[in-house]
Amino acid sequence: MKAVVVRAHGGLDALEVCTLPDPVPRADEVLVEVHAAGVNHLDVWVRKGVPGYEFPLPLVPGNDVAGVVREVGERVAGISPGDEVVLAPATSCGRCAACFQGRDHHCRDYCILGEHRDGGWAEFVVVPRENVLPKPTRLSFVEAASMPLTFLTAWHMLVARARIRPGETVLVQAAGSGVGVAGIQIAKLWGAQVIATAGSPAKLERARALGADHVIDYRREDVPARVKELTAGRMCQVVFDHVGVDSWRASTASLAWQGRLVTCGATTGPKVELNLAHLFFKSLSILGSTMGSKGELVEVLAHAEAGRLAPVVDSVLPLGEAREAQRRLEAREVFGKLVLVPEAFL
Q: Taking the model in full, what pTM does it have?
């Protein structure tokens, strides 16, 4: 099969397009023919490497997959060849307390596709039966492949960690990202008022079209000052961030008394300063969040099937243009998600 492989960390040329043997499913696994695979910042970290963390190279990136079942293992039930499916983006042991409690994303054996095991930037991928979910019928393969990781992440951030409530004001930083476009929609679904930030007029208009009540150009405006103006001094009950050091000051300064800042990433760097007096005096909460459970993904896909949550696809590229996809992502030229498609399905 054709695949994109990272054999050693490096620049864009570390993404190698090559031919690999077709994967073979074990008794409890499913072979899926990939029709579309999403592009995430996590794929960039896999290619570049992360200090102090060892990826199992060589590795096929790709966390988000939609496709068609081609073969099932002998112990697999409820799935048949020909089924159109979308994959949960991570596996777990299925035997520990966290898994039994529906917190599979807290399993010590949690493995994200394309990070800990081969992912979907290939013509075929093998996953456990538990990771195979029906593709929402109203979504194309490209649309379905744009949703799992980012919408699951945003859902867990807002619903499970920040415990968003109707009527609250939510600041969504970097609203043009894959997580950002999901955050806007989920916050609106829960009855919140949304203030979205982005770095260009075009992205701000698209954020508004997604449902943002107010938008702020973080390159030209003072975000906390504008938030104060928009909220009549009340500020935001929830700040939704994944940018890191570049947005940290604005994010913390935009919180209301007893506000909650929830973060899932540090794209611009993880080292930030925190004023503890500000933290305890205003009774603030800072919440870390990583991924979410398979049960939460099922909820997300149900909302997508009903049309309450919508995929946001920036553009589609052939699988062989993975380098160009990552170049665009790092250059912040994307609103929503880029999706790679094997050449046979373009």
A: 0.96
